[in-house]
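Submission checklist for the structure archive. All mandatory fields must be present; incomplete records are returned to the submitter.

[x] Identifier: Tubulin glycylase 3A-like
[x] Organism: Aphis gossypii
[x] Residue count: 389
[x] Sequence attached
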Amino acid sequence: MWNFKNQKEVWNEFMIYYSKLIIDSNAKFDHEYIYELELDVYAKCKYLLEEVKKYCPQYFIDGITNTWIVKPTSNCSGHGIMLSRDLLAIKHKMSAANVFRNNYIVQKYIERPLLVYTCKIDLRQWFLVTNMNPVVVWMYKEGYVRFCAKSFSMKNMHESIHLSNVRLQTKYRKIRNPQVPEECMWYYRELQSHLRKIGQEYVWDELIFPGMSESIYAVLQATTDTANYRDKTFQLFGADFLITENFIPYLIEINSTPGLNPSTSVIANLVPMLLNDIVKVTVDYEKNSKADTGLFVKVVPEKWKSTAAVVLQDNPAKNLSNRSNPFDSPVIFAVGPAALTTGYNQRMANVQKNLAEMRLQMIARKNKRDARRYVGVNRDLLLGTSDLI
């Protein structure tokens, strides 16, 4: 491309070939290159790919197919969503006349999600907002994990593979991957158990849950100027998170009126407990700061630190004494920036930075733990070359 003198000519040719490659896996080109030029192109492309990591926080999730997801702005329940790699198809979707829905959100699709039994999952995280000045947010320690019924593939764009919405996946339960649960849903604790089985016993408490807390807190901070909040009120939200294959949580969307219908046994079991705990926070805690808050934990911001941290505290038995399904994981208070005074983009950049730093901290701790566990003759070699996460 650097052989062209005219920039418009460069981009026209690039887009033609690029679209051809993306849409047609059997695309062929007639250009002939000498070996030295091929080496030069390879070296420059490799250099550019390394450099782009510095400027693109989402480099790791982008994948290679440039897939985008287009969905209605609200109340779609999984319907009307399209995945596409074709710019013209996306434009057509957004410009098509529709008296019911004419507003859409376009997001870069995460092509490298965490897979469980080869299937894509996402998380519904409930959180309670009891104040917006200052921001006071409570994260619920239990939620549900939604499965897609079919094995993940970027070659097949079928909704059973990519869209985890409960109403959609209900249609595919009978033809689901046999390892996927019958209702295509897990409790959080079942995902935590799975992570332990695959040797990732620390990622939930040290990365995933704190990362979700950090993201939600940052978004709420970014909306303080425009939020309409009345004193002595509260609101329950439902955030959807996708976990990447390196265990980083990405906030996909926030639902202002999350559905609590008992459409699965998991939701039917969780919702009464959730509603009971909302009363504990909004009534009991309001009167007594030492009152039991159930499974709600407050996101506690501190002054800005160069690295994010997590404070662990034993889970009081009294919180769980009346529950049929006790949870043995510790209470987690997410720690993040208290005063974010810059623009929205800077706030989101801070979130990405915090998540990266938290991941580095977790790897360092795991490295130290592994060093203590293994003392064989090849210890240094194994610890130096093993893929920790």
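[x] Structure attached
Curator remark: The longest helix spans residues 344-373. The two ends are 37 Å apart (CA to CA).
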